[in-house]
Amino acid sequence: MEQGNGPHVNSPKSGSARGKLVLLVVVLIAIFLAAWGIIQRGVHYHSLTARTEDAAIPPVTLITPQPGPAIRQVDLPANLAAWYEAPIYAQVSGYVKMWYKDYGAHVKRNDVLAEINTPSLDAQYAAAKAHYDVIMARYRLAMITTERWTALKGTQAVSRQEVDVQAANAAAQKAELEAAEHEVDRFEALENFKKIVAPFDGIVTSRLVNVGDYVNAGGGNVTSRGAASELFSVADVHRMRVFVSVPQDFASVISPKITADLTVPQYPGKKFTATFLATARAFNAATRTVTTELTLGNEDGLLWPNSYATAHISAPGNPDIMILPTGALIFRAEGMQVAKVVNNHVHLLNVKVGINFGTTCQILSGVSKDDQLVANPTADLLEGDEVKVVPTTAGYNAKTKAQQAEDQKTLHEHDANPAEAGSR
User: Fold this and answer.
1) Which residues contact 96 (CB under 8 A, 6 or more apart)?
2) What is the rounded CA–CA span in Å between residue 316 and residue 256?
C-alpha cells in the first residue's frame, strides 16, 4: 500500500537508541560525580592530615632575657607623723582655772597652755613650809645646846655621855631639817605644775579640757567614765616623719640612697620629696614588711600630722642581673626551668631565680642574654618537643618602638655613668 502525507511514526529501533543514549549520559554523570567526590575526599583528607600535623606542633613566641631595671620603683601606703608630738597630762589634782591656747595655736616652748586651781595642794605646801620652820627652830635650839654642853665638856659640871647625847640630838635635828627642806621642794615643784606649759615649739593639735574640769594627778582629765586623758597635744611640724611598711622582697635595696615622692589626697598633682632617715632592720612577722622612716621639710605647713600618703619609692637596681617575665618560668619537680628553642626544638634549662618584681623575676644563673626562650610555655612541654615559632604581637607580648627606645636610653645612661644612674 502506498504511503501518504500523514503524521510520522517513530520506529521501535530509533526509540531504543535514544534510551540507550540517555542511560549512557546518566552513567557518565554518575561516574564523574563519584570520581569528583573521591578526588575531593582525597584532597580534604590530605588537607586535614596536614592541618592535624601542623596543629600537633604548638606555636610559640620567643623572648630573650632583658637587663634588670636600673631604677626600681614601687608605690606603697605611708603615714605622716610630726617631727615631735607629745600628749600633755596634769601632774596635780584640781580644777581648770583657765586655758589659753586652742586648736591650731602656734606656741613657743614654756608658753602657758592652761592653769589649774589646787586648794588642797596649796594647803599642803603651806603646811610643809610651816613644818620646815618648826624643824628649823628645833635645829637651832639643838645647835645652841650642843655648843654649850661642848664648852663644859672638860669640867666636872657635865658628863661626857650627856655631851654626846646633845651632839647626836643636833645631828638628828639637822637630818629632820633636810627632810623638811626636801618636802618643801617637792610641793614647790608640784606648785609649778599648776601651769601647763608647751614642751617645745609647735602647734596645739588637741585641747581636751575646759574651764572647771577636774583634772587628776594620775595622768590627765577625768572623763565621764573615770578614765584619764591628755589635756593638750602639741606637735612640732617644721619637719615631718614618713613611715612606710616596705615588703621583704624590696627591703634589700633600702639604704640612704633611696628617695620617695609623696602624694596626699588634699593636694592632687603635687609631689613632696622625702629622703631616707632610718629603718627598723627587722620584719613584722604578720606582714613580712619592715618599717622604714623617711623625712621631709614642712616649712610651709602644708602637711599635717597623721595624714595618709602614697609613697612612690625609687631605689637603684642592678642591670647586670637579667630578668624574665614570670610567665616564661616552668615549675617542675626538677626545679625552676625555662624552655629554650634550638632549631625549632625545645631544650629545657634549669635556672636560679632571684627577686620577684611581680610581672618579672630576676634570673641569677642558667641562661645567657642571647638565648631564645618560649614566652609562655605550656605545662605539657617536654624536652625535645618540636615547636613552631610565630611572630610576637606588638603591644601585647612585644614592646613598642617607644618602649624599646626608652629602655635603650636608660641602659645607655647607666653604662655612661653607673653611679649617677644608681643614685637617681
Assistant:
1) 114, 115, 116, 117, 209, 210, 211, 212, 213, 215
2) 11
**Cα angle at 138 between 136 and 140, to 5 degrees?**
70
DSSP conformation letters of 166-191: HHHHHHHHHHHHHHHHHHHHHHHHHH
User: What does the alpha-carbon distance between residue 397 and residue 293 come to, in Å, rounded to a whole number?
Assistant: 38
pLDDT at 49 over 50: yes
d(CA 417, CA 414): 5
Q: Can you tell me the distance from the alpha carbon of 146 to that of 143, in angstroms, rounded to the nearest whole number? A: 5
User: Alpha-carbon distance 329 to 406, whole Å?
Assistant: 26
**What residues contact 71, with CB distance under 8 A and at least 6 apart?**
314, 315, 316, 317, 410, 421, 424
3-state secondary structure of 256: coil
Burial of 196 (0-12, 13-18, 19+ CB in 10 A): buried
Q: Is the dihedral of CA 366, 367, 368, 371 positive or negative?
A: positive
C-alpha cell at 344: 625549632
CA distance 337 to 40: 46
Give pLDDT tens digits for 121-149. 889 899 999 999 998 998 888 888 888 77
411, 247, 260, 104 alpha-carbon torsion, rounded to 10°: 170
Q: What does the alpha-carbon distance between residue 239 and residue 260 come to, in Å, rounded to a whole number?
A: 15
Q: Are 93 and 216 in contact (CB under 8 A)?
A: yes
**DSSP three-state, residue 51:** helix
CB 289 within 8 A of CB 44: no
pTM for this entry: 0.62
Kindly state the average pLDDT of the residues 61-70.
87
Of 276, 319, 263, the closest CA to residue 71 belongs to 319
Q: What angle do CA 222, 224, 226 make, to 5 degrees?
A: 50
CA angle 237, 240, 245 (to 5 degrees): 145
139 three-class SS = helix
